[in-house]
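Sample pair:
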Amino acid sequence: MTADLDIAAAAIAARQYALITRAQARHLGFCERAIDHRLASGRWEPLFRAVYRIAGSPHTWRQMLLANVLAVGEGSAAAGETAVALWRLPGFPAGPIVVHNRYGESRRQLEHGKVQSCLLPPEHITVVELIPVTTVPRTIFDLMALVRPERAERALDNALALGLTDIAALEAMLEQLGKRGREGTALMRALLAERGEGYVATESELERRFVKACARYGLPTPIRQVTLIAGRVDFLFRPGGVVAEVDGRRNHTALLDREADTKRDAKLTAQGLKVMRITWRRLTNEEADVRGDVKGALRVAA
């Protein structure tokens, strides 16, 4: 019987970074004395009052993060910059642990992390790498009040570029939580207003559609991914010297990246090239007009 309980406990721990809670052990059938015996013998090591790690398991940031979440209890989740790191957004390494709890209004300090109570509906929580964490839209909204505007902006753009969320989901989160005077609301609203529509297609999807459109309308077949002095361009029509850049989600939705694109376009123009930028929306809804623009540019270049 004891061996069976230990096997069951090990199975739970294997799904939780070698962690088990006292409540989970009791649910399996361990009595209080059996739990205390495993703690006293060193087979289980206490991390918090009712959260234990299996002795000999590796110490990791994710183990400690989950331990904090388990210690706070049901309805809690990794949040803030901790959540950004768990979602693996660039620029946010694993660091201090912050856990949000949807119950109550008090804040308390754990030994290895901070707990903050706040409005946290169940639909704002998901699971990443076995750890409860705030959803990407909620994480981005929270981040607006935690870091410099430039850093928050980059995180938003990276989340969009990596396909972790979209403008509609972010706008829905803003509608639900944003209100006048709430820290981060004004910044979130301003960043979303600047970005607008068009976050639909990946770069590869756009490239395929553009090549098919050229063939369909009898346009010359452009050379794909050409490296010039000013950098690599998506398409180059030769002869003619017309550059076509297809602006998709992964590399061109970031406002800061668009500013860099403007500088590069100026360098290409200075070399005598005609630069055209074609968005997913135009290629999808205004394909004939795009064809006319490309055809006209080639005619002028010739």
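Residues 30 and 239 are 78 Å apart (CA to CA).
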